Amino acid sequence: MDYKKLAKSALDAMKMSYSPYSKFRVGAALLTKNGKIYTGCNIESAAYSPTNCAERTALFKAVSEDEREFAAIAISGAPENGEPQYCYPCGVCRQMLNEFFTDDTTVIIVKTSEDYKIHNFGELLPFGFGAENLSM
Ligand code: THU
What is the model's pTM? Predict the structure, then answer.
C-alpha cells in the first residue's frame, strides 16, 4: 500500500474544505481494495449540526458509487491559517466507518506526506456496535 500517495490525497482533499464556521479544514482519502481512491472534505452548515465530516463525505461518495470493500483511509486536519495536525476521526465517523471497515482496515493520520501515524481500525473503535449485534 502506498501510504505516501494516500496521505497526499488526504492533504489535497483538505483544500476543498467548506468550513467557514469552524475554520478547521479536514481532508480524507479512502482506498478501496481494488486500488481506487475516493476523497472527501468537511462541508459545514450555518445550522451547524447538518455538517458532514471529511471521512463521511469520502465514504458516502464511495458507497454511492457501489464500493463496499476498503483497505485504508487517510485523514488530515488543519486550522485555516495553520499547519496540518494529527486529526483523528470523530465518534460519529468511527461508527459509520465501522459499517464497512474491519478491525484490520488501515487508518493513516496525516501531518505531511512524510509524517503520519498508522493504526488499525480496531484500535480506534474497540468493542464497537455493529451488524453482528442485530444478528446479521
Ligand atoms: N471534522 C471532520 O471533518 N472530521 C473529523 O473527524 C473531526 C471533525 C470537521 C467537522 C467540522 O467541520 C470541523 O471539523 C470542526 O469540528
Answer: 0.97
